[in-house]
Amino acid sequence: MPIPLADASDMFVVHTMFRREFGSMPGLVRGVAAGDARRVELVAGHVALINGVLHQHHAGEDAHVWPRLLERVPEKLKALVAVMEEQHEAIHKGARRLDDALEVWRATASAEARPPRSSSAAETG
């Protein structure tokens, strides 16, 4: 009996949201005046929320998507799945760097401590 195809249309919606939100973050962060701790907390809170959702989303993909893809794809596509997993890991590392950068920015509210654009998880994948 063939395995039914999965409906992955919701992945498009979620990934579109991540691209939009991570794409807007550099401008939001640059728009915070140095020393404005209240605004830093507001913007950093939003960035941390989206980054946290990304962590959870990736945990779900790691547990449910990649293993099933490897079970089901033809042998000739397994290398492509490996590339996708490598990209996934690079995004995960970027998300961790963003977590670290947000912690410093929240503590100091300085312009120098703003998360660098390269810390964005979206920029690494």
Ranges with pLDDT <50 over ≥5 residues?
Answer: none
Please give the number of β-strands.
0
How would you name the oligomeric state of the polypeptide chains in this document? single chain
**Element string (H = helix, E = strand):** HHH
What's the shape?
Answer: elongated
**Which structural class matches the secondary elements?**
mainly alpha
Mean pLDDT: 90
Discrete helix count: 3
Total count of domains? 1
Sketch the major β-sheet. Answer: none
Amount of helix: over 70%
Radius of gyration from the alpha-carbon trace, in angstroms:
17 Å
Domain Hemerythrin-like: 14-109
Pfam families: Hemerythrin
Protein name: Hemerythrin-like domain-containing protein
Short overview:
Helices cover 71% and strands 0% of the residues.
Walkthrough of the structure:
With 125 residues, the chain is an all-alpha fold. The protein has one domain. The protein contains three helices and no strands. The model has no long low-confidence stretch (mean pLDDT 90).
Summarize the topology.
Layout (H helix, E strand, L loop, with lengths): L8 H22 L6 H36 L5 H31 L17
Helix pairs in contact: 1-2, 2-3
